[in-house]
Design brief:
Blueprint lengths: L1 E5 L6 H12 L5 E4 L14 H19 L5 E6 L1 H15 L6 E5 L5 H9 L13 H4 L7 E6 L7 H10 L4 E5 L12 H12 L2
Parallel strand pairs: 1-2, 1-3, 3-4, 4-5, 5-6
Helix pairs in contact: 1-7, 2-3
Amino acid sequence: PWILYFGGNATALDGSVSILERIRGDADLGLAVFAYRGYDGSEGRPTQRRLTADGVAAARQVAELAGGPERVVLVGQSLGSGVATQVAAILQEQGRPAGALVLVSPFIEVPAVAHDAVGCAPVCLFPDPWRTLRRAPDLRLPALVLHGTKDTIIPHEHGKTVAAAIPGARFVPIEGRDHNDMWTGEAAEVVRRFVLDAAR
């Protein structure tokens, strides 16, 4: 199986590679990541439509390497959870669903995160709302959601809500972890086991 990783807003490519290597450990897993438009020297302006289209294209390329879309696990963290959810939904609609989906520190939607932070969030301020919760109920693939219980950027309740909305999804709280230290505990091992089980 291969993992296609969608990183967070502040995660550079080298950071994404480090996270993927933690997840892989000594398991036999293919690893793939790409730079979002406007990130890490990649040209263009990042928008929901463009990042989603890029993610779908990347998933197709990885599926060719993996031997089929069912051998690809989409892993999205923070901002990347929104991208991964949209990509998973589109691949499913196209009849080439991914093998599984992992969301780490996901959000219900961007306006809800802003509302939690400042107490108000007019929808007109968010041309790219990344409405994960709207897509979640339609997903039909093995899914795992992890969220730190001490997350100060995206509240833990977002992860629980997203997991509850995806049919059959498993939710794993990562005790004591904040938004940016998710991979210093057991998260990598939990994801590794899930990916290997989903690929059987």
